[in-house]
Amino acid sequence: MTHTVVDSPVGPLTLVAHRDALSGVYMTDQRHRPAQETFGPEDPAPFGRAIGQLAEYFAGERTVFDLELDLIGTPFQRTVWQALRGIPYGETVSYGELAALLGRPSAARAVGLANGKNPVGIVVPCHRVVGSTGGLTGYGGGLARKRQLLDFERGAEGDRLPL
Question: Residue 163's pLDDT band (boundaries 50, 70, 90)?
Fold first, then answer.
């Protein structure tokens, strides 16, 4: 494991790599953030592509990430995280809709719990999942950041998210 910290419009992001694949993108004060000592030594070398693609995203130039990921979680969590990658830029789905897409229509709460433990926020867009009425509910990085990301994606075609 290695890590580096990069500045972003939503605050510092700690990027973590496992076997040179991205395994974590953590915001400050993020719920379910592992202890700093588990991230390994600081080394920016494995993060060139991730840093570049995050910069493109925040500049309004990238809508889909193309990075090698090494996500550690239960089989159900990994299934949810994979489904999150299918939510189009600028759109949202509810926890119930996501559960139904997974063939588990009564598992909205379990989907929400898996969503909350997504280790690579922004890259795997857990911020695009909302409550059944479209309202913001829960986000490991905080509701203000979730709103910031959703507002940016919905109205920022070609715009830059301000620092």
Answer: very low
Q: How far apart are alpha carbons 10 and 161 in whole angstroms?
A: 9
Q: What's the pTM?
A: 0.90
2 noted as active-site residue = no
What does the radius of gyration of the chain's CA atoms come to, in whole angstroms? 15
SS3 80: helix
CB atoms within 10 A of CB 60: 15
Burial class from Cβ neighbours inside 10 Å (0-12, 13-18, 19+) for residue 3 reads: buried
Among 54, 126, 130, 149, the one annotated catalytic: 126
pLDDT digits (tens, 9 = 90+) for 104-132: 999 999 999 999 999 999 999 999 999 88
Handedness of CA 125, 145, 160, 2 (dihedral sign): negative
Q: Are 146 and 135 in contact (CB under 8 A)?
A: no
SS3 content of the chain, % helix, strand, coil (to 5): 35, 15, 50
With contact defined as beta carbons under 8 Å apart, do 17 and 120 qualify?
no
